[in-house]
């Protein structure tokens, strides 16, 4: 029991979120490097993969390491066991990213110092804020020309509605980047431009801000300016409040340069100290399951098909929520209503997969899926039959009517579409009063539509016809007793239901949403499909 608690307490499970190009991959490499997971940074993934087209997707599909959709990497550092949930950089796969965030206990948000908050940062942040998980910010690329740090703080606060607390403060930027001042220890860490790209240690000089040696190192004017800035921060800035950090209301901010490896290890140390061990998860009944319980429980947050095309296998990624997992153990699959042995459990480390013997709450493992799991499914000890609250559906932005070219292939078509939807790669809707002969597919990114076409052809032998539809927004109807036949909608709004029978409206523009809200009293709409 003591051992179980110790093992769980040293786990930290988080996701890194960012707009493409802000430096997520570079940061991940550096973090793995500190854990000794890879000898030389630069090998996490081919950078080119983020600009892939469908043909590349297929190619990547063949190797399917950790490149395309989110996976997880585990490493040890300073007594901690760290699980990084990787998220795909390509925004067409962002629904996958959204769901991955459901398995994280905190998030690290990487912001480009020259660009500030960008589109994808905003969307991913929104998903994190739905769960009130702690969000840490890294303002990256300080070795390049950057925006004024006060302006960047303001940008994060105004754009995202979260308060900020700079843990350190940059001294200059770009060619004149001198280093950072660490607020907690009141010390300066001087940047060495020699570049330490591939190494895990950074040479730096550390000491008190008043130490005259720093005046010489960073120059008189920077020294003066720094002292003024520190004073301003102390007087006018937010106070550090751990409770607010844990609720996701206050984001600790670190200025750093992932490429040159500057400020990354201090960030990691501070982050590990400030974040909590795995957080408890609630059941559909609202009861919280004790993370440290002896009993194993987990939920499926991601399904990845065809990791090995020769075998057409599917891997279900599960997040362990309580207790300990042992290889070959028998668990109860709540949604399937049967007992199963978890076969071929795997853990992921950079490009390698290895079979896991045991894993603890907070860890993520991949289990072989013979086509029985769906996103959000619960696994428990056979004696405990409960289900965790589900994973919400996120709003797609592209819609199309999809049907098989050849009506004889109807059965395979429905099977294929349903499986791909179960994996969470697409959302499927039916029109009100019309059955499965008219299927509308919703995706977050258009590349997913191409992937659907490719997969139906290759895996199910069905050629499909895709007619794109002009809808852009989806809203789930929250009102329980809504009279669907008498709901007042504009002619360019469509009423559909999803595979779980939830009522949905598809809109072409935001104006349509306000129109419907204005013409239907007591109608409540949401942009996140509620969980059950
Ligand atoms: P992403 O995963 O968020 O999409 O970003 P990634 O780490 O791939 O970084 C995007 C680009 O920004 C890369 O350059 C990377 O080297 C660079 N970069 C990341 N962190 C820093 C930093 O702290 N300082 C500077 N100056 N650059 C940084 P690239 O030219 O696109 O790729 P590569 O040719 O360097 O591999």
UniProtKB/TrEMBL annotation:
<dbReference type="GO" id="GO:0005829">
    <property type="term" value="C:cytosol"/>
</dbReference>
<feature type="binding site">
    <location>
        <begin position="18"/>
        <end position="25"/>
    </location>
    <ligand>
        <name>GTP</name>
    </ligand>
</feature>
<dbReference type="InterPro" id="IPR027417">
    <property type="entry name" value="P-loop_NTPase"/>
</dbReference>
<dbReference type="Pfam" id="PF16658">
    <property type="entry name" value="RF3_C"/>
</dbReference>
<dbReference type="InterPro" id="IPR005225">
    <property type="entry name" value="Small_GTP-bd"/>
</dbReference>
<dbReference type="GO" id="GO:0003924">
    <property type="term" value="F:GTPase activity"/>
</dbReference>
<dbReference type="GO" id="GO:0016150">
    <property type="term" value="F:translation release factor activity, codon nonspecific"/>
</dbReference>
<dbReference type="InterPro" id="IPR000795">
    <property type="entry name" value="T_Tr_GTP-bd_dom"/>
</dbReference>
<dbReference type="GO" id="GO:0016149">
    <property type="term" value="F:translation release factor activity, codon specific"/>
</dbReference>
<dbReference type="GO" id="GO:0006449">
    <property type="term" value="P:regulation of translational termination"/>
</dbReference>
<keyword id="KW-0547">Nucleotide-binding</keyword>
<keyword id="KW-0648">Protein biosynthesis</keyword>
<dbReference type="InterPro" id="IPR053905">
    <property type="entry name" value="EF-G-like_DII"/>
</dbReference>
<dbReference type="InterPro" id="IPR009000">
    <property type="entry name" value="Transl_B-barrel_sf"/>
</dbReference>
<dbReference type="InterPro" id="IPR035647">
    <property type="entry name" value="EFG_III/V"/>
</dbReference>
<feature type="binding site">
    <location>
        <begin position="140"/>
        <end position="143"/>
    </location>
    <ligand>
        <name>GTP</name>
    </ligand>
</feature>
<keyword id="KW-0963">Cytoplasm</keyword>
<dbReference type="Pfam" id="PF00009">
    <property type="entry name" value="GTP_EFTU"/>
</dbReference>
<dbReference type="InterPro" id="IPR032090">
    <property type="entry name" value="RF3_C"/>
</dbReference>
<comment type="function">
    <text>Increases the formation of ribosomal termination complexes and stimulates activities of RF-1 and RF-2. It binds guanine nucleotides and has strong preference for UGA stop codons. It may interact directly with the ribosome. The stimulation of RF-1 and RF-2 is significantly reduced by GTP and GDP, but not by GMP.</text>
</comment>
<dbReference type="InterPro" id="IPR038467">
    <property type="entry name" value="RF3_dom_3_sf"/>
</dbReference>
<feature type="binding site">
    <location>
        <begin position="86"/>
        <end position="90"/>
    </location>
    <ligand>
        <name>GTP</name>
    </ligand>
</feature>
<dbReference type="Pfam" id="PF22042">
    <property type="entry name" value="EF-G_D2"/>
</dbReference>
<keyword id="KW-0342">GTP-binding</keyword>
<dbReference type="GO" id="GO:0005525">
    <property type="term" value="F:GTP binding"/>
</dbReference>
<feature type="domain" description="Tr-type G">
    <location>
        <begin position="9"/>
        <end position="279"/>
    </location>
</feature>
<dbReference type="InterPro" id="IPR004548">
    <property type="entry name" value="PrfC"/>
</dbReference>
<dbReference type="InterPro" id="IPR041732">
    <property type="entry name" value="RF3_GTP-bd"/>
</dbReference>
<dbReference type="InterPro" id="IPR031157">
    <property type="entry name" value="G_TR_CS"/>
</dbReference>
<comment type="similarity">
    <text>Belongs to the TRAFAC class translation factor GTPase superfamily. Classic translation factor GTPase family. PrfC subfamily.</text>
</comment>
<protein>
    <recommendedName>
        <fullName>Peptide chain release factor 3</fullName>
    </recommendedName>
</protein>
